[in-house]
Each structure stands twice: as structure tokens, then as C-alpha cells.
Amino acid sequence: MAKLGLRSRLFLSHVIVMLVGAITLVVVSKISSPRYFVVFLDGIEGRSIVSIRPLRRELMRAFQFAWNRGAFWSVVVGASTAGGLSYLFSKRIVQPLIQMEDITKKLAAGNLQERVPSQDIPELNQLASSFNRMATELQGVEQRRRDLVTDLTHELRTPLTVVEGYLEGLADGTLDASPEVYHLLAKETSRMRRLVNDLQELSKIEAGYLPIKTEPTQLYPILDSVVQRFSDQLLDSETLSLTLDRSRDIPLVSGDPVRIEQVLVNLLSNALRYTLRGQIQVKVWQKGNIVWTAVTDTGIGIAAEDLPHIFERFWRADRSRDRHSGGTGVGLAICYRLVQLQNGSIEVESELGKGSTFRFSLPIA
């Protein structure tokens, strides 16, 4: 029976149940019906002035004949009807499973657009919905993998081309070995190292391997430390200032202090990279059950049509801008995912030529 298909096993199980029921009905009726009929005849004879004892044998024969004929046709008609219905129900149950098996084979072959249609049976429809969600997740993973390979190839091509060109120039003597050349080579290799490190961290975040240890956290000590670190880089600057707004008492937030600091560092690095003059302000405020932290700058800003893409990996409005400024194009994507892992959200407002505001929220502890 194990070698039979699911449809055949379901149909055979229905037939076995039907046969057991029919045999039980026939046997029990065969034994009990004549006795009940005799009791019925005795009751009639007791209530009647006419004796039916001479006719008892003929009546019993007639009853047996009628019962046998009726039982025979009942079993034939009932078995045929039950068998037909069992076949239809077995087919109705098995057909979606066979269809799902075919779609599974197509998914395994790389056709990730296949989906299971909705079903009439609620349990099978729930299974189809779960299957389709799994297929959608697989399609997303595959798309992210392809995007990662494409983006990584694109991002590494430029520094590798620069390094290769300078090394060839040094090798054939068209370029003189000078501190400037070595500094440029070191800068490009450093950029590739940062890119690989950022991609490794982003991959851990997306795969769920990056540990997040949320705990009640005070924001201001983290802000003080990060702002002081970046302020030290602006000591000689006369056109740019960095300030921290301390105007409010902020409750403890639920978050990972290390990851909060990482988000702030990335946002401030991004602000410094694209702000040549004016000011950068870090501000914190409470709104309901969440605490917002904002980094506002007076930099070059972002066009309105580019804002929906700003947290995408490797996306940039000017494809060459980050290469000249030293960015990897991954920092904001890391911020976006780190904030999400801490049950927060991150937003951006910007106007081209006037500056940008990046703000993220964390729940109150």
C-alpha cells in the first residue's frame, strides 16, 4: 500500500471504511432482524382473534426474501455512491498537493515566480498561502544575492581599476614612485577594505547573525561621546560647527548601546561628508512612547525624487559622489537595518541645496 499514490491510498481507505460499515450492518441485521420480526408477529397474534401461526413460516420466508433483496440493492447502491464520492473527494484533496509538488519542482529549478493558486479547502488554502510566502522570501533572498553580486562588482571595479592603472604605470616607468602615488594607492585599498567590512556587517544583519542586546539605555552619554569625537575633527574648522541639544530630560530607551552608537557615527559621518559649511545639530526629544534622535545638517541636500531610495544598499543620486568623498554607499543601509532590529524606525527629510535631517526612533524602556 505504501507504493500506491496518495489519491489511491485515500480512496482505498474510504472503501475499506465503507466495506467494514456495510459488513457490520448486514451481519447485525441478519442476526437481529428475524428475532425482532418474530416478536412483532407474536404481538400481532396476541392482539388478534385470528391465528397466524399456520402462516408464520411463509411470513418468515417472505421477510427473509424481502430483507435479502433490500440489503443487496442497498449495499450495491450505497457502495457505488460512496465509492464515487470517495473518489471525487480524494481527487479534490490530492489535486492541489500534486499541483504544489509540480510548483516545488519549478522553484527548485530556479523559476521563483511560480505561486500556488488559492484553494477551496481552508486547510489547503492556508498551506498554499504559507508556501507562497516561502516562495516570496526565497525570491527576495535570490534577488538580494544577485543585487549584492552586481553592486559589489560595480563598487570594486573602480578602485581596482585605479590601483591597476597606477601599478602598471609604476611597473613600466611612465609614473615616478612618489609619496603622492603611494598615498593614492593606500587610499583606494583602504576604501576597498572599508567596503568589504561594511558588506560583511550588512550581510550579518540581513541574515540575522548580528547580535542585538537591548537593554535600558541612557542616550545622552552616548551622544556626548560621539559628538565629542567628531567635534575634535572640527577644531580647526571656521566654517562648520557641531552642536548637541540638551534642552530636555529624556527617559531611558530600549536599545543596544553599541548599535545606537554605530547608527549615530554613520549618520554624523554622512552629515560631515556632505556639509562643507554651516552647522550640524544633534537633537533628542520624546513623543509618546518613543524617543527620537535627529541629525540635521546644512549640507548639499537630497532631491525629492531620490529620498525613497536613500536607505537602499549602494544607491546614490550621483554615482561618483561617494567615491570622491570616501563613502562606501552601505552606511545608511546599515543604519536602517540596525534601527529596525531595535524595534525603531528611521526617516529622512531633505531639500536640495539646503540640508538634510535624518532621525530615528527607539521605544522607551
Write the layout of secondary structure elements.
Layout: H1 6-47, H2 56-108, H3 122-172, H4 179-207, E1 215-217, H5 219-231, E2 240-244, E3 253-255, H6 257-273, E4 278-287, E5 290-297, H7 321-325, H8 331-341, E6 346-351, E7 355-363
Parallel strand pairs: 2-4
Antiparallel strand pairs: 1-3, 4-5, 5-7, 6-7
Explained architecture:
This protein has helices spanning 6-47, 56-108, 122-172, 179-207, 219-231, 257-273, 321-325, 331-341; strands spanning 215-217, 240-244, 253-255, 278-287, 290-297, 346-351, 355-363. The protein is of the alpha+beta class and 365 residues long.
What tags apply to this protein structure?
365 residues; alpha+beta; 5-stranded mixed sheet; two-stranded antiparallel sheet; 8 helices; 7 strands; elongated
Largest sheet: 5 strands, mixed
Strand content: 5-15%
Uncertain spans, ≥5 residues at pLDDT below 50? 319-326
How many β-strand runs?
Answer: 7
Short description:
This protein has helices spanning 6-47, 56-108, 122-172, 179-207, 219-231, 257-273, 321-325, 331-341, and strands spanning 215-217, 240-244, 253-255, 278-287, 290-297, 346-351, 355-363. The chain is α+β, with helices and mostly antiparallel strands and 365 residues long.
